[in-house]
Amino acid sequence: MSAVNRAAVEAVLRQYTDPYLNQDPVSAGCVRAIEVQGDQVSVQLELGYAAGLFKSGWAQMLQMAIEGLDGVRSATVDIQCVIAPHKAQAQIPGLANVKNVVAVASGKGGVGKSTTAANLALALAREGARVGILDADIYGPSQGVMFGIAEGTRPKVKDQKWFVPIESLGVEVMSMAFLTDDNTPMVWRGPMVSGALLQLVTQTAWGDLDYLVIDMPPGTGDIQLTLAQKVPVAGSVIVTTPQDLALLDAKKGVEMFRKVNIPVLGVVENMAVHICSNCGHAEHLFGEGGGEKLATQYGVELLASLPLSMLIREQADGGKPTVVAEPDSQIAMIYQELARHVGARIVLQEATAPAMPTITVSDD
Asked: What is the pTM of this model?
């Protein structure tokens, strides 16, 4: 029986690729310790993204591989998730108690952006992260409904300065809907909307959050620019449908984030296919492959492709989005994959970003 050493263990680890970091644990810098005592091996790995539902299976796979080494009688693989803060805009100070800000955006309305944001937040929490969600859709806030928060609920005020977010389904929630009457429309001009967003972001007493998901309003206007210039965003997720019109607007969203130096983590395609509940026939009602084409065009990842499902809509409207309503369903698993991919893409982004571009207006 040959003796085992660290190099042999590392060689085994290099044969397995983390599906979210797209690298083996050694190349990805995840190895924290390798101890060899005779025929027993102990490995400690550290993931920089939330992966509570993934890490046990990943550890078991690596353990079995190491135990296949000649000279190894038993092995243990311990995996911890340690989430570090990231931000794309180096010149913008970080938010107190918030490590990573993720903007969920779309070029147009009606593509399922808010539903995606809610399920993403819940999926990150289910992976073991501490999560908050900010409803930045000032004109049409909907996260209160999706998280089952009763109409008329108001946040507490701390030290006459801070809004205390409302906790629901294990996520801290803040929305303009908590500060206004649901029947009163927000008839505000751009500067007022931008000011309201900044107040919600900076004057909310968030807990110690690993991720703050921001549900953006559709479009590429004042709120998006304010976010880019004032809030330390780690990355953005673009939501679209396969429809050509939606893709056209989604392209504008990708270009907008790129112009303000915020990384686009990837694309989520909603309503990709409809499965008939009676006969099981599959139809691509809004076109086919649009999200993948958009991702390929801009060199980003297609993070998830979700079906046109009545259950997704009913569960969100009922105050229990799919991730908590049916956590073991196929659709919930897609959202869990999305959450792990988003966390991993943040880790893989550049640690620093160039300064904000100077915007000039000419008569040409």
From this structure: 0.89
